[in-house]
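COMPLEX REQUEST
Ligand: magnesium ion
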Amino acid sequence: MASEGENRTTLTPDTPVQYLKGVGPRLAARFEKLGIRTLADLLEHYPRRYLDFTHPYPVAEAPAGVECVVQAELLAKQGGRYAAGGRRVDKATAGDGVATLELTWFNNPYTIQKLEVGQDYYFEGEVSGGLLRRRMTNPQVRTAAQVSDAPLAAIYPQTEGLSSGAIARCVAQLLPHAELLGDPLSPALLEKYRLPGKAQAVRDIHRPPAPGAVQEARRRLIFEELLVLQLGMGLLKSRGSAATGAPMRRADPAPFWAAVPFAPTGAQRRAVDEILSDMAGETSMNRLLQGDVGSGKTLVAAAALWAAIGAGYQGALLAPTELLARQHAESLNRLLAPFGIRVALLTGGVKAAARRTTLAAIRGGEADLVVGTHAILSEGVEFARLGLAVIDEQHRFGVRQRGALADKGANPHLLVMSATPIPRTLGLLIYGDLDISILDELPPGRQPVKTRVMTGERRRDLYGFLDRQIGQGRQVYIVCPAIEESPDGGLAPVKTYYEETAKALLPDRRVGLMHGKLKPKEKAAVMEDFRAGRLDALVSTTVIEVGVDVPNATVMVIENAERYGLSALHQLRGRVGRGAAESWCFLVSDNRAETVQRRLRFLCSTNDGFAVAQYDLETRGPGDFFGSRQHGLPALQIADLAGDTRTLHAAQREAAALLAADPLLSDPGHALLAAEVERMFRRAGPMN
Ligand code: ADP
Ligand code: MG
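STATUS: Structure written out below.
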C-alpha cells in the first residue's frame, strides 16, 4: 500500500491496481491481461488451487514430477557461484534422516541467505532424482511459523511476467482492506443461508486459516455471484415484457418469398412465421433464432426486417465485426433494395463526413435499415422510429449490448441470432428471457463437409491438394494462430506462416493475408478480393470465424487445430460447404495426446453443431463454455453453472423476491447489489 501518511479515504473498489506498492505501469499492464484493473478485480481473482502445507511429505515419499511440499531439516549450504553465461547458482542440502534432498536455486541468492542450518523447513516444488538422493529446483521455502499462520498457500492463475507468487504478494497487501468491497448481501440473507460476510470470505479464500474455511468462503462467494447474475438477467427480462413501441399488423410473407432468389427451407418459413406473429403482438418480440452455420439465418432476418420496414418502422442489424457488417449490408441490400428499402452502413471504419450524412439519414428516417458494428450503439446515433433490432452472432455480444440496442428505440422488437447450439439445460438459464426459433434444416443441395485430422508432416501433400482445388477454380482458407498468441515461439505466427509456408508452397497462386491487426479498411479490401475471386487462398487468423460467406470456397485448413474448442472449429468449418461443390476441412495438429486426438476425431465424425456443443460441454465442462464467453453471458469468477445447481436455485428464488420488492434495485439498501450487477455486466462487454 502507499505510505502510511497518505489519505486512505479515497480507496474504493474501483481504485486502479497501480495504487499497490510495487505495481507500476508495466505490472499493471500484465494484470490487465488477467482482466484485473482495479482493487476489486484483484480481490476477486480467486486462487485456482492451494498447496496444503499441513500434510508435508517425508523426502523419500514425495511423488516425483508433481508440485508438492516436503518437510526436512536444512543440513548444509554449499555457497553460491556463477555458472557459465552468468547464471547465479545456489545449492543446499536438506534431509530427514531417511533420505536427502538436494536443493538448487537459479538467480535467487536471497532465499538461501535467510535459511539457517539445523532448522526445519517446508520446501515446495517438483521432486526428481533417485529414491534416497532427491532433488528440487527453485523451491519455495516456508518456516513452521509461516505455515501455522497460513497452512494453505494459494496458487493463482498467472500470466507471462506475473507469477502466482507475485500475485499472492499483491493480494496480501490488499487483504487488510478487504472491507472496501462492502457487503452486497443483507444481514438477513447471511443469516438465512448461514454465510460468512464478504470481507471474511475474501480473506479466507485467499488465505484460509484452515482447509475447511475454503468451503465456507466459496459457498458464500458463489451464492453472491449467482444472485448478482440472476438479478442482472431479471432486470433485462423485465424490460422485455413491456408494451411494444412498434405495433404492427401481421404481415403476409408471400410477396417477400416470391421476390428472393431461392425458395425458403421449411425451417426458414416456420421461423419467419413465428417472428411475424411475435411482431404483431402487444408486447415486443424477444426472440432467439438458433441455427447451425450455413442454415440461412440472414434470409430470415431479411424477412423480419422487410416486414417491420413495410409497417413504417426502421430496422437495425448489429454484427460483431466490421467484416460481417459489410457483408450483411451487401447481401441485405441485394435482398431488400428491390422493395425500395434503403440500407445504410455504420461502422467504426466509416469516414467522418460519410458518417455525418448517415447519422442525419438515420435521424431523419431516410435510412430504412442500418447495418453496422457496435458503432450503432454509440451516443450520436438516433433513430427516427426504430421498430426492429437484430443482433447477429449474439454470443459475441454481452447481454448489455442487447439492452443498449433496444434502448435506441421505444421498446422495439428484438431478434438475436446465434450459430452456437446450447445444450438445453444451460439454454433455459441463459436465454430464459427469450423465445426460441430453430433452423434445423440446411438449404438443399449441400453436401456434408468431409473432415480429416493430419499431422504437419503431410503439409506438402495437403498443399498439393489445395493447388489442385484452386486449379479447378475453387478457393481455400488457411487458418493459423494469431500474431499475439505465440509467446513461446514454438508456433509460426500468421505472418511467418504466410511468407514461409503458404506462399512458398503455392508459388503460382494468389495468396492473401488477413489478421486482427489490419485496419478495418484493409480487412475489407482483402475480404473483397477473396470474395470477388481475385485471391485463390486466404491465410487468416480466426477473424474469419463468424459468418463469412463465400460459397466458392471449398477447403478449410486449420493449423494447430488442438488450440481451439470444438465449437470454434465447427464454426470455422462452416465457412466451407456453402455451395453445391464437395468440401473439405483439414485439422492439422502435431499434438498426439490421446484426448486431443479423440476430440479432433469426434469432429470428423459429425457435422451436427448440436452434437459438437454437447461433446464440448461434456468433455471440457461448462466452465469452458462460459469461460470462453460463447454465449455473451458475463464471465463468472467462481460459480459453475452446471455444478452449483442447488445454490443457483436458491439464488434464483432470492433474486425473484428482491426484484418483486424493488423492481429496479433503486432502494438505497440495494445500492451495493445494483453496483455489482453493473460491474458484472460491464465486464461482459463486447469481445475484440
Ligand atoms: P448462417 O445461418 O450461417 O448465417 P447464411 O445466412 O450466411 O447462413 O446462409 C448461408 C448460405 O446459404 C448463403 O450463401 C445463403 O445465400 C444461402 N441460402 C440461405 N437460404 C437459402 C435457401 N433457402 N436456399 C438456398 N440457399 C440459401
Ligand atoms: Mg450468419
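REMARKS: The pocket of magnesium ion (ligand 2) is lined by residues 297-298, 392, 547 (CB under 6 Å). The longest helix spans residues 211-240.
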